[in-house]
Design brief:
By secondary structure, the chain is mainly alpha-helical. The chain has one domain. The protein has 11 helices and 2 strands, in the order ααααααααββααα. A hairpin with a 3-residue loop joins β1 and β2. α2 packs antiparallel against α3, α8 crosses α10 and α9 packs across α10.
Length: about 260
C-alpha cells in the first residue's frame, strides 16, 4: 500500500516537473535528484569501510550534469580534469597509501553512476518533443517494473541472480519485458503516434532489459554495503537510487537509440 500511495503522489509530480518546467528549472530539479542520489551513494560506500570524497563527488557530478545541459560542451574538458581534484584531496589528506585507490576509484564510480547516468535526462529533455520522450521512457520502465514486481511475487520460482538479489526471478524478469512492450505500445498510442510502432517496441525492449541490469547493479551496491535500501526518502520504495535504478541504466540506451537510429 505504501508503494501504491507513493506512486499516486509521485507520478503527477514527475509529470508536472517534466512537462511544465523551463529548461533551467528542469536542470535544477535534476541537480537536486543528483545531490540526493550522491548522498545515498556515499552513505552506502561508507558502510563498506570506504570513505571516498562525498563533497568532491557531488561537485563533479553537478558539473557533469551542467555539461550535459550545455549540449555536451566541455564534457571532454571535464573528463580530462575530473581525476585531478580527487587525487589532490587524497594527497593533501596524507592518509594511508593503501586507501588511495579504493577512495579515488569509488568516488569516480559515484560521479559516473549518479551524475553521469541521471544527467542524461537533460539532453533528452532538450530534444525536440523531449518532454514526451521522457514520458515514454518512464511509462516503459515503470510498467516493466510493476509487471516484474507483481509477477515475481505471484508465480516467480526460478532465481535470476540469487547471490545479488534473491527475490528477483526469471519469471518476474520475463514479465517485466512484457510490461515494457505494453508500455511502449501504450505510449505510442497515447502521445507518441508519429514515431513508428516498431521503433517504440524495439527501444522499449532494449531499455527494459538494460533497466533490469540497472536494478541488479544497485542491488550489488546495497548487498556490499549491507543495507536493504539506498535511503528512506520515498515510503515503500526506499531512496532515490532505489526508485531510479532502472531508469538510470535505461536512459543512456534510450538517448543513443534516439541519436543514432531514430
Amino acid at each position: 500500500m505504501e508503494r501504491v500511495l507513493s506512486g499516486i503522489v509521485l507520478v503527477p509530480a514527475v509529470v508536472a516537473a517534466v512537462y511544465f518546467s523551463p529548461p533551467w528549472i528542469f536542470f535544477l530539479l535534476v541537480a537536486a535528484v543528483v545531490a540526493i542520489g550522491s548522498r545515498e551513494y556515499f552513505s552506502m560506500i561508507s558502510k563498506m569501510g570506504v570513505g571516498g570524497y562525498p563533497v568532491l563527488g557531488l561537485a563533479l557530478s553537478l558539473l557533469l550534469a551542467l555539461c550535459y545541459q550545455l549540449d555536451g560542451r566541455y564534457v571532454l574538458e571535464w573528463t580530462a580534469l575530473a581525476l585531478l581534484p580527487i587525487f589532490a584531496a587524497w594527497f593533501l589528506g596524507k592518509k594511508d597509501l593503501r586507501d588511495a585507490v579504493p577512495q579515488i576509484a569509488y568516488t569516480l564510480l559515484g560521479v559516473f553512476y549518479v551524475g553521469g547516468l541521471l544527467g542524461i535526462f537533460l539532453p533528452i529533455r532538450n530534444m525536440e518533443e523531449g518532454r514526451f520522450l521522457i514520458f515514454f521512457l518512464c511509462v516503459v520502465i515503470w510498467m516493466g517494473d510493476t509487471a516484474a514486481y507483481y509477477a515475481g511475487r505471484s508465480f516467480g520460482k526460478t532465481p535470476l541472480a540469487p547471490s545479488v538479489s534473491p527475490k528477483k526471478t526469471v519469471e518476474g524478469a520475463a514479465a517485466g519485458v512484457v510490461g515494457n512492450l505494453l508500455g511502449g505500445t501504450a505510449a505510442h498510442l497515447w502521445f507518441l503516434g508519429h514515431v513508428p510502432l516498431i521503433h517504440c517496441l524495439i527501444v522499449a525492449a532494449i531499455c527494459g532489459i538494460i533497466g533490469q541490469f540497472g536494478d541488479l547493479a544497485e542491488s550489488v551496491l546495497k548487498r556490499s554495503a549491507g543495507v536493504k535500501d539506498s535511503g528512506s526518502l520515498i515510503p515503500g520504495h526506499g531512496g532515490i537510487l532505489d526508485r531510479m535504478d532502472s531508469l538510470m541504466f535505461a536512459g543512456p540506451a534510450f538517448y543513443f537509440y534516439l541519436r543514432w537510429i531514430v
